[in-house]
Amino acid sequence: MSFEIKLPLFEGPFDLMLFFIERDELDIYDIPISKITNDFLNYLHHLEQMEIEVASDFILFAATLMRIKSKMLLPRPELNEQGEEIDPREELIRNLLEYKKYKSVIQDLAGLEENRLSKEKRGNIIFELQELNKSEDVDAEMQHVDLYKLLKVFQRSMAKFASRRDQTTHTVIQYPYTIEQQKDFVLEKISFKKQVSFSEFITYKPDKIFVIYTFLAILELLQLSKVTIIIGEGFNNFWVEKTEPIAAG
After folding, report:
1. Mean pLDDT over residues 227-241, rounded?
2. With left for phi above 0 and alpha for psi between -120 and 50, is residue 66 left, alpha or beta?
């Protein structure tokens, strides 16, 4: 038994973000970045499965969301010149509000345009064709067309076709890792030893994407207070230690 999945297409990444916010009734000033990042990536993966080309601005936006998510997981927040904590979502929220404002204006203008077009006087195609025949002498125009002009037109048409065919395409790759899987992987490794160095996790599978997902998983576990990080001298390595549960008094 086969079934068909239909996904709505959006004008751009901000349009998709507003859809998620309105659908889940989220506070645009306090966006749950982890959830909305997962929703955004799932949408792109569904497009890929349906063999729909994903535009580069969607891919760039997905990378921006993951960067914001990583910044929010870091234990040390960034501070501005006044010593106040900088919210990594600040620029995203500002751009979303700006886009929402212009979108509402465009919708109002579209409504006015539709209302104006509904009052437009209907044309008469037969009458218009007759008028064109009177004003344009097609036979006389064809007399000035030679082989050179035809070849130039053909050459320009082929050049346009080649440029469209050679346009850069972007492919979204679904990696065989998830943050949840890597969290389980980290907890399993530190259950056998009191401390495990980050370099030891890397030696398990020295793959760039694997290392990135493992690092993000450690940051989430750190935020959930399931692990602690011990930093030694220098900046080349650190150790991960399981957090012991506090006994009830």
Report:
1. 75
2. alpha
C-beta of residue 238 within 8 angstroms of C-beta of residue 229:
yes
Q: How far apart are CA 249 and CA 243, in angstroms?
A: 18
Own/partner pairs, 30-33, CB within 8 angstroms, 24+ separation: 31/89, 31/92, 31/93, 33/65, 33/68, 33/69, 33/72, 33/88, 33/89
Is residue 249 exposed (0-12), middle (13-18) or buried (19+ Cβ within 10 Å)?
A: exposed
| DSSP 8-state secondary structure symbol assigned to residue 205 | -
Helices 13-23 & 56-73 angle (0-180, nearest 10):
60
The answer to whether residue 145 scores a pLDDT higher than 80 is no
Q: What is the pLDDT, as a whole number, of residue 144?
A: 57
